[in-house]
Amino acid sequence: MFDIKLFRAVEDFAALILPLSEKDLEREWIWKDHEEEGIRFACFVTLQELRHLAVELSALHTKPTPAQHILSQYHAAYMELQAAIFGLSEKDAGKVPAEGEWQVRRIYAHILSAEINFTIAVRYALEKHRAASWTTERASEEDEYRLTGMSETEFQARLEGSFEGMLAYHRGFHRTIIEEFGSITDSELNLPSAFWEETRFAIQHRLHRYEAHYAQHTIQIDKTLETIGNIPTESMRLIRKLYAALAEAEGMMIGVGKKESALAIATADSIIDRTNLISALLK
Fold it and tell me: At a CB cut-off of 8 Å and minimum separation 6, what does 94 contact?
């Protein structure tokens, strides 16, 4: 599905750009006929490459299924969240913005906890419907542990460990969700599911909840970061644009295997070359 080389190329480019001041971004860097924009322009060249990759991939694909389309929206929201906290230290993630307010680390733990529980609800509904044994009852604790492959102790350890550890676990879990739920059929999207509410919402609603929940708490994280003095710099704003473009390209890869990997690799190679050139220039 997603090309890891492309992801790492964008991540490494973002890490190079992150600490740069506006003055650094103005340092000379020439790309073809563009001589006056400086290093800043490298971000826009990279942005264009990622957007063009998305266009190329779209032209090669059959129309995505509704489930795959929803998952691409979910992935875009996930990447926006990752861009919002990109480069955030363990220390800053733990800073309490004000008495009674959640620090970024706690907000992220809540996001991950909710996502695991959303996934339990979808997995349980699909399992029961596919076995023709669905009832209005929600999953038992025993089923929850089985469907996550974690005990309560392991679940809490995920949420109470290091911030970096939580991010790493979430990265893998996120990809698992996309791979697993990308096969949900159109008819299955309309089937009911059980969660904490009395309303037995359709599976489609559960899938859309991933993105909506991200939106709610990414905004909360943005506000929290500003409160603790972590005001977004120009570099950080540029990184959010790059992650949005990467998310669109990766969204085009959902459900299509690796048949277009050559396009992604070519884009990754171009970004890697640019990162190396700018890194040498900065040194």
Answer: 103, 104, 105, 163
- The answer to whether 205 and 194 have CB atoms below 8 angstroms apart is no
Question: What is the distance between the alpha carbons of residues 268 and 283, in angstroms, rounded to a whole number?
Answer: 23
Q: What percent of the chain has pLDDT over 70?
A: 99
- DSSP letters along 169-225, please? HHHHHHHHHHHHHTT--HHHHTSB--SSSSS--BHHHHHHHHHHHHHHHHHHHHHHH
Cβ-contact 125, 207 below 8 angstroms: no
Residues 6+ apart with CB under 8 A from 158: 112, 150, 165, 166, 169
pLDDT tier for residue 36 given thresholds of 50, 70 and 90: confident
Domains contained in the chain, number: 1
Contact 13, 83 (CB under 8 A): no
Q: Where are the alpha helices (DSSP H) in 18-103?
A: 22-25, 40-60, 66-84, 90-93
Separation in Å, CA 280 to CA 16, 273, 277, 283: 11, 11, 5, 5
Per-residue pLDDT tens digits for 215-257: 999 999 999 999 999 999 999 999 999 999 999 999 999 987 6
Q: Which of 61, 31, 200 is nearest to 121 (CA)?
A: 200
Q: Which domain holds residue 18?
A: 4-282
Structure confidence at residue 175 (pLDDT): 95
Q: What pLDDT score was predicted for residue 257?
A: 64
Left (φ > 0), alpha (ψ -120 to 50) or beta: where does 195 sit?
Answer: beta
What is the pLDDT, as a whole number, of residue 259?
57
